[in-house]
């Protein structure tokens, strides 16, 4: 029951964030929807820089797919019943993250908040790429348990897109200094996710699991 509830909550949040991002940037006027951010000094959201605009749209489109696909990849019943579908979805997940994380590295250098904001986003994008690549590498080597662990780490970085917005609302708008709160939200989003998933992996996932064993069936 607990797992099903957790899955439902994560999936719901992922859908809400993905749909809101698509509507915000592809349906409505992003300058109007980001008016508060622009007033706070985030001038790039005035959408006056064409290359940055293109990169942002690519980043959004390639990030929302892994956010939605991710939870389904962890459902064992779906994986066992639709193995080919699982493999295909896994490949889409990996390719989208590789593109989105590389584009995110470019966007990071324009982050509001100075060097700490830039470093925060750079670390997130590099870890996003790294954890996903490790997950892919282990399944190619038929190491299912290690693949599963790194997939959880990868999705923790993917889910930072949502926790960043949560922390921004909690910290960014609650402090007198928006920039300080915004930078804090960047770091809290992925560091918090990484700490939480490491605790879960070590104390829950690894119970009774041989993490060095190989499997005979490829998952991706």
Automatic annotation (TrEMBL):
Keywords: Membrane, Transmembrane, Transmembrane helix. The keyword Flavoprotein does not apply. InterPro entries: DUF2306_membrane (IPR018750). The chain crosses the membrane at residues 54-76, 88-109, 115-133, 154-175, 181-201. It comes from the Bacteria. The keyword Membrane applies. Pfam families: DUF2306. This is DUF2306 domain-containing protein. It comes from Litchfieldia luteola.
